[in-house]
Amino acid sequence: MSFAEFTQITNQNAVPANTVINMTPVAPFPVGPSITFVGGNIILAPGFYDAGFHNTSDPQTDTQDSGMKLRLNGVDIEGSVITFQDSGDLPGTVAFPVAGRVVFQVTLPDSTLTLTSLGASQNVVNASLTVIQIG
Fold first, then answer.
1. What is the pLDDT averaged over residues 20-41?
2. Three-state SS at 4
3. What average pLDDT does this structure show over 118-131?
4. CA–CA separation, 50 and 111 (whole Å)
5. How far is CA 8 from CA 12, 21, 77, in A?
6. Are 130 and 44 spatial neighbours (Cβ–Cβ below 8 Å)?
7. Which of 67, 68, 91, 116 might form a disulfide with 34, Cβ 3.0–4.6 angstroms?
8. What SS3 state is found at 115?
9. Where exactly are the structural domains of the chain?
10. What are the two backbone dihedrals, phi and then psi, of residue 19, each rounded to the nearest 5 degrees?
11. 119-135 average pLDDT score
């Protein structure tokens, strides 16, 4: 998916179920674009989703402003709301390993879930997520 396609998705009111969003931007990924999911329960498919916007070869250079953040109704979602296996990112970023069940459970009927880029290092890893259920 190109950056333009990624931006186009962010302008939609909702992302349909079974939508696969692949993010393969050229580094450095700019700050700003976001994807907003509008609905009740939102469950993401198991699999690999890692913002990848950090220096995996040198954890000391990793920063909390790297990667992706999830916000519910404009508020950062804490780990207690998201069930996932952390692959080593700092708090505030979202990272899933290849194996494991990945579930986002958003219970408010009028909730919006937003995935926002906070910028990237030069080590961009391809990322994708699949919305398997909304509502």
1. 40
2. helix
3. 35
4. 23
5. 7, 11, 24
6. yes
7. 116
8. strand
9. 3-134
10. -75, 130
11. 36
